[in-house]
Write a structure and sequence with these properties.
Layout lengths: L1 H14 L6 H8 L3 H7 L3 H25 L7 H13 L6 H10 L6 H22 L8 H22 L7 H15 L7
């Protein structure tokens, strides 16, 4: 199955959605079309698995980046790690991410997305609890939910309509400003 998922990502990245067929995936993955149908009922099934892998990859990348941080991370650093994770090319080629965003019905990978989101909300919520006066007052769990989904929604909009922004340092900074401003103390100096 690994070869099929890798082949599917390669087809989308190099040839685009129009070329995304079971036959092309089979050619790229080095397996017969019948072998693909042993695991997936259609090309959308393959794409759903690609979506699950991207979600899992994002969580793993964020964990690794946070583990590299000596000591407890500041809120600003954690925001940068979160934003950088969503923008990193290693997460997936923009064409692959666009196809996932536009073509896969959310229910097909919702369980994985819900699991990843719950872990992200938990980590962000804990970080906000420890942040004390670094962030404004409020329900930390609710704030974690809002900020993580706000940033993710903006990134998904870029994936769908302006994928070039994923590599734009100014876009990265704007996302960090968005999250920092939302979490920042209302009485703090800008």
């Amino acid at each position: 199955m690994e070869a099929v998922v890798a082949g599917a990502e390669d087809v989308l990245a190099r040839d685009g959605q129009g070329a995304f067929t079971i036959t092309r995936i089979a050619e790229r993955s080095g397996v017969g079309p019948g072998s693909i149908y042993q695991y997936f009922d259609s090309k959308l099934g393959v794409l759903g698995e690609v979506a699950r892998r991207i979600e899992q990859r994002a969580l793993q990348m964020a964990r690794e980046r946070m583990a590299e941080t000596p000591g407890p991370p500041s809120v600003r650093h954690a925001i940068r790690v979160f934003v950088d994770t969503l923008l990193r090319p290693e997460l997936g080629d923009p064409a692959v991410r666009r196809a996932v965003h536009l073509e896969v019905p959310p229910g097909w990978f919702q369980r994985t997305a819900d699991e990843v989101d719950a872990k992200v909300h938990s980590v962000v919520g804990e970080l906000l609890e420890r942040a004390g006066s670094e962030v404004r007052e409020g329900d930390r769990a609710l704030m974690a939910f809002v900020v993580s989904h706000a940033v993710e929604a903006v990134v998904e909009a870029a994936v769908a309509s302006r994928p070039e922004l994923l590599a734009d340092p100014e876009f990265r900074e704007e996302l960090c400003r968005l999250a920092t401003a939302y979490l920042g103390r209302m009485d703090a100096e800008p």
